[in-house]
Specification:
The protein starts with 5 loop residues before the first helix and ends with a helix. The protein has helices spanning 6-14, 24-49, 61-83, 85-90, 92-96, 104-121, 126-151, 195-213, 222-238, 256-275, 279-298; strands spanning 246-249, 252-255. The protein has eleven helices and two strands, in the order H-H-H-H-H-H-H-H-H-E-E-H-H. The chain has one domain (6-217). It has 301 residues and is mostly helical. Helices cover 63% and strands 3% of the residues. A two-stranded antiparallel ribbon has the order 1-2.
Length: 301
């Protein structure tokens, strides 16, 4: 079951008959932005006290959040349109005005790029600042994916294979039909994989990892590079059971998200290589992660 509006969820829980145009996805996105912004501000203050960032930098977090979020929303919709160009050409306004259809990588690339430019103009050290916001970015992603799940915005997976479902796993964690979803798509039973749930759980786990590593980072920039690795691997794996159009990338069939995931992982690997203290140790890690990325891209789930 999906709940496009907050009152849909309240009515289902409490048997009420409320009808207010408050989109569930919008509320969860707002919650994601607020929670991520508050956590980032706290972490920036911690790094100020440690001498890693100039005093007063935490006062810029609010404006930085607004800049990156606005750019991220525009970028997310733009990359989705590029990935679904033919439907867009056939009916541009329908896709522009749709309440679904956002690409996380479009949002990530546009948001990070705009944030970096904004910080550079204010002479804020980039590497420690990116480290400070990395855990909050992962937390915000987890909360945002819950909005995708509740609203049913189309970010679900392929048809679920019920013969593979473990007996101990609840059926709703394996297949859902997203009745009443916000994009108006009818999904036949038994349903599709609820990939938004999987991504939310994975992102929360990765947030815990980043939060644990934040005090162990050997050099500025390390934590953000780990974030890139984590985000890239997570999306590369989930793409195996998601519905997205494939394109030919140098003769290799990949979805847009898979191709970008590989680039994000590569950037993270290079960053880890140059931020770990021991080059011998970092080379082994990079090699192992590179092999894992190749296997993730080539081996179907």
């Amino acid at each position: 079951m999906s709940f496009p509006y907050v009152t849909d969820l309240l009515n289902a829980l409490f048997g009420t008959r409320l009808d207010l145009p408050i989109p569930t996805f919008g509320v969860l996105v707002a919650a994601a932005i607020l929670s991520a912004g508050a956590l980032a501000r706290k972490e920036v203050k911690t790094r100020e006290a440690a001498g890693l960032l100039p005093t007063g930098t935490h006062g810029l977090v609010g404006d930085l959040t607004v800049v990156t979020c606005v750019a991220g929303i525009v970028g997310a919709r733009a990359l989705h349109i590029i990935d679904h160009w033919e439907p867009f050409v056939a009916d541009p306004w329908a896709m522009i005005a749709s309440r679904g259809g956002f690409s996380i990588y479009g949002g990530l690339c546009a948001g990070v790029a705009s944030g970096v430019l904004w910080l550079r103009r204010r002479n804020v050290p980039l590497a420690p600042m990116l480290d400070a916001v990395a855990p909050s970015m992962m937390l915000g992603y987890a909360v945002g994916r819950l909005g995708c799940q509740l609203a049913g915005d189309g970010d679900w997976g392929i048809a679920a294979d019920m013969t593979l479902k473990p007996a101990w796993l609840p059926e709703w964690l394996w297949a859902q039909t997203y009745d009443g979803n916000i994009v108006g798509v009818a999904i036949p039973a038994p349903g599709v994989y609820p990939t938004s749930i999987y991504e939310a759980v994975a992102a929360l786990a990765l947030f815990g990892l980043l939060w644990r590593l934040r005090s162990l980072a050997p050099r500025p920039g390390f934590l953000f590079c780990v974030y890139l690795l984590a985000a890239g691997f997570e999306r590369l794996l989930i793409e195996k059971i998601r519905i997205n159009p494939e394109h030919s990338w140098l003769g290799v069939p990949l979805t847009q998200a898979e191709a970008i995931s590989i680039l994000v992982i590569a950037a993270g690997l290079i960053g880890v290589l140059f931020t770990l203290r021991s080059r011998r140790y970092s080379t082994r890690i990079v090699f192992a992660l590179g092999v894992a990325a190749a296997l993730s891209a080539c081996v179907p789930l």
